Amino acid sequence: IAQDLKEFGIKVPKVKKSSKSQDKNHSPGVGVFGRRLTNLPTVQVCTPAGTYQVPKFLVTAVNFLEDHIETEGIFRKSGSHARQKELKIKVDDGGEFGE
Q1: Where do the DSSP E strands lie in 18-62?
Q2: Are 5 and 12 in contact (CB under 8 A)?
């Protein structure tokens, strides 16, 4: 497909080749960032459309956002870089979202 797009003059970004070494930096079941979603622990989610296996991290993130949807400015601007880094480390270490 990428070649077809290039023939039409559309620039296609190069795809980074997946490195299995990324997952070697994480213990099984721990860590979220830098891992494929298919390698993350999952939970079963039932919807009217069916039952699905969804990454636990994603379910936790959505639940957190639903619980805090009334927070003014939650989607307006990014938090501080230091706070983002702190939360990323906390989540990667298996911690929960917090305020």
Answers
A1: 42-47, 50-55
A2: yes
Task: Give the predicted TM-score (pTM) of the model.
Answer: 0.59
Q: Which residue has the tokens 């911690």?
A: 95
53 SS3 class = strand
**The pair of three-digit structure tokens given for residue 95, joined into one six-digit string:** 């911690």
Q: Please, what is the end-to-end C-alpha distance for the chain in angstroms?
A: 44
Find out whether 58 and 68 touch, Cβ atoms under 8 Å. Answer: no
Could you give the 3-state DSSP secondary structure of residue 30? coil
| Spatial separation of the C-alpha atoms in residues 69 and 15, rounded to whole Å | 35
What's residue 3's pLDDT?
78
Nearest to residue 53, comparing CAs of 62, 41, 64, 36? Answer: 41
pLDDT band at 24 (very low <50, low <70, confident <90, very high): very low
